[in-house]
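[RESIDUES AND BACKBONE]
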Amino acid sequence: MLLAGKTALVTGAANRIGAEIARTLHQNGANLIIHYRNSSAAAHALERDLNAERNESAICYQADLSDIEALDLLAQKSTQAFDSLDFLINNASCFYPTRLGEINERDWQDLIGSNFKAPLFLSQACYPSLREANGAIVNMLDIYASSPLKNYSLYCCTKAASQMLVKSLALEMAPQVRVNGIAPGAILWPETSDANAVEKQQALLRKIPLNRTGSTESITQTVMFLLGHDYITGEVIRVDGGRLLHSA
């Protein structure tokens, strides 16, 4: 129980990698604040599962992370839920293509809001509690923060901003709070109705030196490593099977 007595807020924790991160932190003893925006049923199902394993150890909070007031309230409620806040995992993210000539202000607000604005302002709102706890922040990034993906220019730029945020906040929040990032490659395929999805996935796998997708466990293990290592800050760990060794 490496995290016994600790409290973690995981954004976008209802599904996919966010839910696996939440489960792993909980298995290691942490109390969990499960943030969700629209996935109420999945979030509350996860809350029930975790509380069945350890009573009164998890709680759900809904928030639109593009709303500054909602971010401040989420930080406040998260600190009050278990009387402290030790870890913030900025996992929530939007991902979709924005082809040049079709990018609009809604896309800008949506992608900037989830991938950069939310991690910045939520980290700021949680900072007093994290500082008191000598805590840590982990931002979930993307390998495309460092290398562009065609037709995803806006998304890539927002993740690049979040990557710089890791380094900036690590400097600003030191020495009490450590800030690091994880840049996944192909872990879980995006949910899509694209009829050519399988063909595209196979083409991507051919560009990965390890020739396979990663597992969610490879991400959760990296989160645990960063939370447990007290002399790493301002770093981004790529978990991509070597994907970035090839050009995009």
Observations:
- The CA atoms of residues 108 and 192 lie 21 Å apart.
- The chain is about 45% helix and 15% strand.
- The first helix runs from residue 16 to 27.
- The mean pLDDT is 93.
